[in-house]
Specification:
By secondary structure, the chain is mainly alpha-helical. The protein has 13 helices and no strands. Helix content is 57%, strand content 0%.
Length: 251
Amino acid sequence: MNTIIEQLKPTNISSNGFKTALIHDDTYTKVKEYSNPQVLEKFKDEWDFPDENIIDIFNEMKNFLYLSTISQKENFNIEIHEPLLVIDKMWHIFMQFTEDYTTFCNDFFGFFLHHRPFSKTTLERTIAALKTEGKTYSAEKRTQLSKQLELIEKTFGFDHVKKWYIDYAVDYSPEILTAALRPIFHDSESHINPLVDKNIINQMSKNDLKSTIIGIYSSSCFCGGAGCGRYCTCNSNGSSGSGGGTQKICI
């Protein structure tokens, strides 16, 4: 069986089976062909989705990043709406590989594409600014979303509007994302952090304490030697390695 690394291939087939009306320029062709198996493996460590879903999300993230550069040329910023949250999660993973992400942006776009989260402070400032112009936030959101849908259709075809705002809304709803997020650890906390008696710890010498810490954590891959979660780098959750299953490579 192929691993997720071997399966990574660019695609322009939407979930409904129709070919998308993709634009044809050199930049987009290169973006489509770009692959990064490390990003996919890291995403799989954190999210419990099938390989084919992860590959599709990665490809759609690339589409979103490309669309972001197109929108900026038209003096318009696209946003991550609720149906696109899973794309945002993949973007977060990609940005953790800072050198790869920087190279990707510079090579394909000619500049660093920043991620600007929408905070409560940003919301309050936006509402206040709109109020001075005699506009409401709800009306502005409708206008923004309408422009975004038009840009998606213009760039990729209408089937991509459906894929992002209907298919993804169902397949990656907030409830499904909550259930798919792997726990930090799968086993009991007593295995992960046995140094629970601070009175005993405080009586140890520095050398004894360092030796104790080394003895506990040096053999693990962020799973405490007990069970894997989204910060574990071994393969006992079946997220890497050709054999899958419960084999550990770090214990």
